[in-house]
Amino acid sequence: MDQPDPTIHQTVRLKIMAALKALPAGEAIEFMRLKALVAATEGNLGAHIGTLENAGYVDVEKDFVGKRPRTRLCLTKTGRRALEDYVGYLREIVDAPQSN
Amino acid sequence: MPLNPSEAADALRDIARTERRSSSAYGYRLASPHLILWGVVWAAGYGAMSVDPKWSVFWPALSLAGVAGSFLIGWRMRSAGNAAFEWRYAATLVAVFVFIAAIFAIMPPKNDLQISAFFPLLTALLYALVGIWTRGLRMLVAGFAIAALTVAGYFCFPTHFLPWMAVVGGGGLILGGIWLRSV
Predict the structure, then answer these.
(1) Contact assignment for B12 to A90 by CB distance below 8 Å
(2) How far is B30 from A33, CA to CA, in rounded Å?
(3) Fewer CB within 10 Å, N side or C side of chain B?
(4) Could you say which architecture CATH assigns to the domain A11-95?
(5) What distance in Å separates the CA atoms of residue B123 and residue B103, rounded to the nearest whole number?
């Protein structure tokens, strides 16, 4: 990878992806729990989730628990692969011999 | 814009930190209902014994109800990712029961107070070990708190140890479960 994936190459989106990757495959997390984990505001988090969803990196499920709306997210296979590629890209930079 | 090595290292640390927090929070979410359930079991069992020590006969039934409830919770929370949880949970319970049977056969407790303190201490050890191995600080704190309260009750308030365990032990587990859920 010569250039970083622009979808993931953003602090909040990177944290969202990392938080989702730590869950077992197919396991979803509720929006409010994710908000606490990445320390973002609701509006900011919602916008970044939209970007990741449009890229096909996360699945967003909306339903109701009783009368309370619930939004849950999980990482797609594409998203998991994209994050692994991005981590590989970061490791290449860190491990590359330094020229002074 | 390409990153320099320092920025890349920072990003890798950020990823690792977030993954660790997310993984811990997921573990807490799984553990929380079990703590609350066993808190209720302890409160009921020790509470009944506080009223009349003869009511210790309810402990086997209460323990079985707790195990059944834990299986039900595990079954309801199962997913593709933690499908292996149920058999591991069952195997852990079997290992613990065999261990307890062996310990009691070799070193039989001399009185009810010792038995009443043994199970909370064993539970505390299990929580502390889970906390250490999963880097779950809250599990570790819960384990140490249960152990400290049990030892304090045993040595400082032996005549009120049973109600102490009903209120402080059972209540502590319930509060611990709620605390884990809040992450």
Answers:
(1) yes
(2) 14
(3) N
(4) Orthogonal Bundle (1.10)
(5) 15
Q: pLDDT per residue over B27-42, tens digit each?
A: 888 889 988 999 999 9
Q: What residue spans define the domains of chain A?
A: 11-95
CB–CB contact A19 B18 (8 Å): yes
Ordered DSSP codes for A76-95: -HHHHHHHHHHHHHHHHHHH
In chain A, DSSP finds a helix count (H) and a strand count (E) of: 4, 3
**Interface predicted TM-score (ipTM) over 0.90:** no
The whole-angstrom separation of Cα B113 and Cα B99 is 20
How open is the CA angle B42-B172-B104, to the nearest 5 degrees?
45
Chain B residue with the nearest C-alpha to that of A95: B5
Q: Residue A72 in contact with residue A28, Cβ under 8 Å? A: yes
Model pTM above 0.80: no
Q: Determine how many CB atoms are found less than 10 A away from the CB of residue B62.
A: 17
